[in-house]
Every structure is written in C-alpha cells, then in structure tokens.
Amino acid sequence: MTREDKLIRQLKKGRQECLDELIALTYPAVLRYCLWHMPDRESAQDAAQETFLRLVRFLGQYEQRGHFHAWLYRIASNVCADLRRRTPPALSYSEETVGQFACTEAGLQTAENRLLLARAYACLDSQTRELVLLRYGQELTYREIADITGIPARTVQTRLRRALVKMRRILSDEIPPKKGDSHREATTE
To answer: pTM of the predicted model, to two decimals?
Structure first.
C-alpha cells in the first residue's frame, strides 16, 4: 500500500491532519502538471487548488486499489479543462513551464533552446501532448499513464515513441547543424 493510500485510509477514518501531509506529498507534481495545461502560473495554481478541493469533495468515492495518482491526475485534467473552457485564450508554453520538462531522452537533452522544445511539443496533437507530459513532465510509468488515460500501456509506449520521433524531426529542422556535425550536415543537404 502506498503512502498516499495509507493517508487516505486515515482521512476516511476522520483523521483530518493527514490531509496536510497528503497535499504536501502531491502538490508539487499536480502544480507541475497544471503549469503545462494552463496559460500562466496563476491559473495553474488556481487549477491545483481546485484539484485538491475536488479531491476532498470526492474522497469518499475513491476506491483504494493503488491507483491514487491516476485518480488525482484525472481530477487535475478535468479541472484544467473546466478552467480553460471558462477562459478560452490559447495555451502558451512559457520558458518557466518548459523548464519543468524533465525529459531524459538523449536526443532532446541536447536541445539548447527550451522554446524550440516547447514549439516541438506544441506541434503534437492534444492527446499525444498529454502522453508526453505525463511520461516526461510527470515521470509516470506507462502503466500509470494507461490508468489515467484509459489507453493500453503498449499503445501509450508506441504513441510516445512516435511523438519523440516527430519532436526530434521538428527540432532537427529548426536547430542549425553545428560545425563538425557531419551526420546532420549530410541529412540536410
């Protein structure tokens, strides 16, 4: 049983002091998730707060099966969608938000300009952006992403692989080759 599930069990028994610990454990990840889905930090903080309000409101409906993070991200996703519907300006991926992207993919680590990465990310369709965000921004496993999205884990893996190939292609088109990088020079001629 995860630490979060133990805290939820205590909350359901009436130990309200466990709520502070649960929020402290999960708030940074939820805020980072909301930063990617909202146009600015203030909106993201509002979304994160609303996520935890809904968590408290619907805590009785949560079934403890070890899928707390999937449940919490679904709430956050719904909150962000609701808030975006109320305020329709287009999403912009600020440099601060892009800095939250903890990608370990070797081809993407070499991208010197974070805004290029954001542009490549923005070129993906919304469902694929969500998968990339959950995997590399939130560092979730394929299984956790499958639980959140309802997509089979192997399909998640395949779509992520395709997304990374597309992002690499976009980045290679936008980043000029460095001197002595004969492979890139040869492919662009």
So the answer is: 0.67
